[in-house]
Amino acid sequence: MQDIKTYLSPRGIDEAVRAMAAGDVTVFCGGTDLSPQVESGARQYTATLMNIRRVEGMSGIAEAGNLVRIGALTTVTEIRRDPLVARVASILAEAAEHFASDQIRNAASLGGNICNASPAGDMINPLLVLDAEVELARWQDGAVATRRVAMADFFLAPRQTAKRDGELLTAVFFARPATNFVACFRKSGPRPALEISTVSVGIGGRLDNGVFRDVRVAMGSVAPTPLRARHVEAALEGKRLDADGILAAVAAAKTDAKPIDDVRASAWYREHLVQVFTEEVLNHVLGN
Amino acid sequence: MSLATEIKFTLNGRPVAVRVPVTMKTLTMLRDLLGLTGTKYACGEGECGACTVKVDGKTLNSCLMHAVDCDGREVVTIEGLKTPEGMNPMQRAFVDHGAVQCGFCMPGMIMQADYLVGENPNLTREDAQRGLEGNLCRCTGYTKVLDAVGSVVEQKCCGRC
Asked: DSSP string of B41-100?
């Protein structure tokens, strides 16, 4: 039985990270991951329970210069319906479209999905394709200090991230993609809704007269963490996106994916699926 | 005993103040502390939608939501859909279409269907299907549910609402 001594519902980032500096804080917002994990015994509440929903300055989607900033408390529904996301980063809206159910999308926050650090986290994949960074805030020398970490370096192991004790993920940033940026996301599962991805593949890049540049490829559920598929990226970078180029990328997908057998699928099936998806996503990118 | 705190919120249009354990879920608070048993407990992990309620106008699974998070917000349960004239149009449509088998999933289905039509007055059958993905009926009675939702959309379109 957990012994919670304090419940906090801070209104500001300063108040939140100040409390977190003392340690032993369980942070929650939508509760869509935390609640079942605590119920099943996979996680336990700590001495302080902190509800961050009312923290100001951590919600919403806005442009800041060349950057797009999405507050950590922004819900998946808000991302799915946002006109700016639809215009400049449709791959993110596409992933939101296939995220769980309406009820979960209405409650789940972007920051929660990232910090849960599941290899199957569906908002992570498109953010890797967008080369996003997370902003981490902490209390230091009597003030809020922040640092940014690239999403590609953020995931260390299943449920383990580069976020240190006392740090709060406050926002996600990515550079507004170029106008010739094309991207596509695909996930699989036995049914479209409420499905934890068996495999997900997201690919994006600039299509410059048929040549693919600044290629970024993300894969989910095929390794201990969500990953950037560097071999597939190398196979595609600066190449013409034609049948031969796609064939080379599909071959490279096998090198990047290190799947395991688990309750949702066998390693063999995942290895097969990740190649099929790489081909499908690239064909789709080409079609766009 | 777990730490408890007092929260205040609006429940079905009325102000409520209640002391809740900080780990309690909204569903447990509604059923066990406030006596509103229309909202059902089924899977307890956000898969089935039987516990769907509306918070600040958006539906969510009350089995996943911490009760303390209701503080200052507006919560509507199946009991709150009732109008002074009786059932609301979605409830009426479910009855008229016999869209009920065992009935356990109905409060959640009706809450979600009502939300969907409120969000999109031109909801298609396909939209309704997608929007109800988070609501499971173990009796598999989906066809009449979709018929019922469709009939409410038609009523709205002809301007009678």
From this structure: PSSSSSSS-TTEEEETTEEEETTTSBGGGGTTSEEE-GGGG-BTTBS-HHHHHHHHTT--
Q: For chain A, what is the domain count?
A: 3
Q: What number is the ipTM of this complex? A: 0.94
Q: Is residue A195 part of a domain?
A: yes
The model carries a pTM of 0.94
Please report residues of A whose CB lies closer than 8 A to that of B59: 102-103, 106
Domain covering B89-157 in this structure, CATH number: 1.10.150.120
Residue in chain A lying closest to B131 (CA): A102
Domain ranges of chain B: 4-79, 89-157
The backbone region for A206, taken as left when phi is positive above 0, alpha when psi lies in -120 to 50, beta otherwise, is beta
Cβ–Cβ below 8 Å for A31 and B69: yes
List of long-range contacts for B114-120, beta carbons under 8 Å, 24+ apart: B114/B81, B114/B88, B114/B90, B115/A102, B115/B54, B115/B58, B115/B59, B116/A102, B116/B149, B117/B90, B117/B149, B117/B152, B117/B153, B117/B156
Nearest CA in chain B to A52: B69
Assigned token pair, B107 = 């409060």
Closest chain B residue to A105 measured between Cα atoms?
B60
Taking domain B4-79, whether its CATH number is 3.40.1400.10 is answered by no
* A32 CA: distance to closest CA in chain B (Å): 6
pLDDT digits (tens, 9 = 90+) for A176-214: 999 999 999 998 876 666 677 788 999 999 999 989 999
